[in-house]
């Protein structure tokens, strides 16, 4: 029955429900995707607001992998790694380790110097020291989701299992580097 089909097709951008395109006006928080994006400036602002609620202003530019994770909805390849029916996003172990900063089975001190605000907990929100709050990356990714995907499960899978990886970010960085030279 046609009305049970997901609203977004497999490779279509979730936020704009269309193919990726060049955003105009340019993105500020998710600027790495200014040549091609799956979001518009209003999405970018909401992502920036959520990221600003996670970290203090002094720490917001300190963690590029975490910032990129929050910008998942703007990534032009995001539709390849998401299942809207089961509400699952598949990310590669290498990306999870890059965001987490340690082995996935251990706690991390990568963010302890800044701390984090648990804004998604609503009235139970607090400031936490990440190494004390989450004993491993799996607990962290179970709770900390990219904006617009709060009701999705983040599955960490092995490389080559059709997953979102840091290679996506490296490609964007290479393109930006070439454009700046």
- Give me the count of strands: 5
The share of residues in extended strands comes to 5-15%
Mean pLDDT: 87
As residue ranges, the low-confidence spans are 1-9, 167-181
User: How many domains, as an integer?
Assistant: 1
Rg over C-alpha atoms, rounded to the nearest angstrom: 16 Å
Strand ordering within the main sheet: 1-2-5
Ends distance: 52 Å
Tell me, briefly, the overall form: globular
How many strands, what sense, and barrel or not for the largest sheet?
Answer: 3 strands, mixed
Number of helices: 6
Element-level helix/strand string:
HHEEHEEHHEH
Judged by helices, strands and strand pairing, the structural class is alpha+beta
Q: In percent, how helical is the residue content?
A: 25-40%
Topology at a glance:
Elements: H1 41-54, H2 64-70, E1 82-83, E2 88-92, H3 93-100, E3 116-117, E4 127-128, H4 130-133, H5 137-143, E5 153-157, H6 166-180
Parallel strand pairs: 2-5
Antiparallel strand pairs: 1-2, 3-4
């Amino acid at each position: 029955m046609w009305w049970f089909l997901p609203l977004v097709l497999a490779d279509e951008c979730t936020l704009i429900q269309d193919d990726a395109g060049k955003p105009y006006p340019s993105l500020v928080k998710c600027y790495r995707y200014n040549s091609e994006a799956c979001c518009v400036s209003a999405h970018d602002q909401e992502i920036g607001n959520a990221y600003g609620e996670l970290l203090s202003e002094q720490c917001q530019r300190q963690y590029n992998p975490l910032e990129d994770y929050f910008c998942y909805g703007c990534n032009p390849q995001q539709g390849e790694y998401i299942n809207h029916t089961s509400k699952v996003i598949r990310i590669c172990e290498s990306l999870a380790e890059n965001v987490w900063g340690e082995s996935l089975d251990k706690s991390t001190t990568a963010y302890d110097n800044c701390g984090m605000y648990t804004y998604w907990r609503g009235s139970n929100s607090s400031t936490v020291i990440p190494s004390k709050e989450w004993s491993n990356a799996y607990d962290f990714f179970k709770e900390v989701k990219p904006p617009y995907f709060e009701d999705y499960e983040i599955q960490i899978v092995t490389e080559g299992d059709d997953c979102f990886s840091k290679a996506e970010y490296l490609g964007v960085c290479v393109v930006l580097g070439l454009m700046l030279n």
